[in-house]
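Re: weekly structure request thread

Next one in the queue (263 aa):
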Amino acid sequence: MGEYSKTETEGRILIVTINRPEVYNALHPMANQELSDIFDGFRENPDLWVAIITGAGDKAFSAGNDLKYHADYRKKTGKLPVHPPRRMGGLASRFDLEKPVIAAVNGVAMGGGFEIALACDIIVASDKATFALPEPKVGLAAGSGGMQRLSRMIPLKKAMGMLLTGRHVSAQEGFELGFVTEVVPNHELMNAARRWARDILACSPMSVRATKQVVMRSLDTPALETAMHNLDYPAFVAMTRSEDTVEGPRAFAEKRKPDWKGR
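Done, posted below.
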C-alpha cells in the first residue's frame, strides 16, 4: 500500500490501483513518481508477467494532472511543478517495458489519465467510462504523449476532432474509433481485465515480449522490408534462444498445456 496507490498480485499478474479517489485519481509529481517506481519494479520482477492498472472508486480512472496542486504550487513558488521522467502514471513516457499492461478504465479518463490508458497495450473500458484530452480548455496541451499516440491509433481527422476541441468520448465511441479494445458493463470490468491477462498468460511470456517489442519498434518504420529485416529486436532474439521456444512445440505434440518458464 503506497501513499497514492495500492498494489496486489494474483499469481503472475500485478494489479495497480491509483488511489486518490477524493480528487478523481488526479496525479501530482509525487504520485507519478510512486507509480513510476512500481512499474520499475514490475519490469525487473521475473515472476510478474502482466500488469493491470485501474482507478480507485467508481467515478474515475484518473482525471490526469492535479490542476489544483499545479496552481497552488505555482502560486507558492512561482514555478511549474516538475513531473518525473516517466510522466503520467509512470507509463506515459516509458519505452523500455516489453511486458504487457492492461488499462481497466472504470470511469473518467481525462487528460493525463487518458494518456496513461493510451500508453497501455489493451484498454478495457466500463460502459460508464469517458475519455478526453481537454488540456486546450485550460491553456495546456496533452504533453505526456496524448497528441502523438492518439493520432497514431485512430484516423487523423477523428483524432484532431478530439484534440482540438477537448470533447468527451464515450467508451462505445472509443471502441468504434479503435482506441478501446473492449467495452463491458461496469460491474464486469475487473473480471474482463483479468480475462485478458489470463489469455496473455496462456502464451509464452518470451513470445509476448518479443511481439510487443517488434510491434512498438516497427510502428514508425514505413518500409515493411526495413521493419522486418533491418531493425534491432533483442526480445525476439531472446525468444528464439529460450526454453519456451522448445517447450511450446513439445507441449503441442504431447497434447498438453505448456509449462512456460519465461526464459
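Residues 69 and 202 are 43 Å apart (CA to CA). The first strand starts at residue 5 and ends at 10.
Next request, please.
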